[in-house]
Amino acid sequence: MKLSISEKSKKDIFISLFQLLKNSSSIVKIIFYDSYMYVQGMDKAHICLFDIKIFSDWFETYESISSNSNICIDTNTFHNVLSMNQEQHSITIHYDDEPEPESICIDLISKKGDFNKYFKIPLVDLDTDTLTIPSNAEYDAEFSINSRKIQEICSQLLIFGDIMQIICSEEKIDLISSGVNGEMLVKIPIDDLLEYSISEGEIIDISYSLNYIQKMCITNKLANEIEFSISGNIPMRIKYKLDDNSYVTFYIAPKI
Predict the structure, then answer these.
(1) Which pLDDT tens digit goes with each residue over 74-92?
(2) Most buried residue, 8, 119, 219, 224, by most Cβ within 10 Å?
(3) How far apart are CA 39 and CA 28, in angstroms?
(4) What is the per-residue pLDDT across 161-214, written as a single tens digit (0 to 9) for each?
(5) CATH number attached to the domain at 141-252
(6) Where is the Proliferating cell nuclear antigen PCNA N-terminal domain (predicted)?
(7) What global pTM score does this model have?
């Protein structure tokens, strides 16, 4: 298996992706299919599920000899190595297509200006099944918001409490957190959203762990906007579109 990325914006996206993943889980399983890379996993508390698909044409090069070659990596180490990337570096990730590879290699190669760096990271064991996520789930409310704005809002809300209450109506969205330090209310007019839809006459009032939402929105490098989809009876979906086909999605269970 071999893939490479040299475009700066895509390198930033790839590094930011694993920054998010290390905040959710210490170990993740990556499956390299013929036409795309797939990552799925859950945090230890089973509150957050991540589901990621990046198609081969998103990478500069993508070669997968086996039809479903898979590995498990330590996300903290993997992200630390990727973060050593400099502007002139290209990132190449590869390993031998053996039945049970023991390590993965990351090469940071520069045409000029920076030293070449080569890393070999041991793989880890993780016994987990891939979950089937319904693709036709219907949500009561969906909206898109600027990623930088929601990142800032989550950081501010977290000062006052660790639970985010979301109230959606046809006119507006309220985001609320409260605690011993007081309460913060953010009113978001519908006209200020990039996209918004809600079932007619519906008023949604539901709460989620703000710590988890903040972790999922800690970077604005994945995409300029984030899609939120919520309903009372299924986990909230937070989705980043990398292009027309590739995506990064998180599902967060509501507070009971």
Answers:
(1) 999 999 999 999 999 999 9
(2) 219
(3) 7
(4) 999 999 999 999 999 999 999 999 999 999 889 899 999 888 999 999 999 999
(5) 3.70.10.10
(6) 20-129
(7) 0.90
Q: Is 199 helix (H, G, I), strand (E, B) or coil?
A: coil
- Domain ranges for the chain, please list them: 2-122, 141-252
What is d(CA 220, CA 254) in angstroms, rounded to the nearest whole number? 24
- pLDDT tens digits for range 16-51: 999 999 988 899 999 999 999 999 988 888 889 999
CB-based contact 70:117 (threshold 8 Å): no
**Residues 129 and 144: beta-carbon distance below 8 Å:** no
Q: Which residue has the tokens 């507070």?
A: 255
Phi/psi at 147 (nearest 5 deg)? -65, -35
At 62 the pLDDT is 96
